[in-house]
Request: fold
Amino acid sequence: MINATDLLGSLINSTMTKSGPGRIDHTLGNQGIGGQGGILGQILGGSGGAGGGQGDLLSTLTKMAGSMMGGSPQAGHARSGGTMPAPGGAPGGTDLLGQLSSAIFGGSGGSARGATGGGIMAVLGGLALDAFRKMNAGSPDSQGATAQNIDADDLSRLIAGMRKPASREEEQQVQDIATLTLKAMINAAKADGRIDAEESRRIVGKLKEDGITDEEERFIVSEMQKPLDTDGIVRAVPNQQVGAQIYAASLLAIEVDTDAERRYMQDLASKLDLNSNVVRYIQTSVGMA
Reply:
């Protein structure tokens, strides 16, 4: 049985698209969830990550970064030799966000890929929650949102990576969403047609370097060989929050620089029944609008 969160970390580390690292960086920055009114922006500029689900989200991200930098979140050392700042005020927060985005694409193998996968799920979940919060607040733009609280029920926080699973059933929910995210990213990569043999070998080769198991390799190869099945992906989406996360993950999998890819993303948003303001916010957050 595969660990979908670990495998997602490996897939992200394989850098499916050249724009992926830049889009993660942009998402964590001022025009995404790290900006004013954004989930990470509120945490880093306010209570320093203490308390409730907000702290859990930041903890997920800082633990991910610390793991990949070879130390603890507060006292770990980056590859450059610098000390990772503790979450808190604006200056440290800015450095932290930059190191988080670098860390997502900086690790390989072992626990690093699980940390990467968990961090990516938290970023995607935070992005989805922010998109709906700002739509509900009447502020579709990424700048100037006025919502002050993260208004999410317990299930939403679990899906968004803002709290740890409390049972085997909840852990399975998280794994199911991670599996769906994997399938959606691979499906998006087929938007221009099938994944050819050369591209498949490149991706699998990178994944092997990251230490994937034989079973994980078979899963990835099987998904790449399947025909495009956007309807199947959409049918498996349990709610719109996950739909927004799937849409955002798909933007990490492809460049969206061809007509076929643009049509694919439009079709995906339509079939997921995502509000145009939610779509616009996600696109802006990743630096595409």
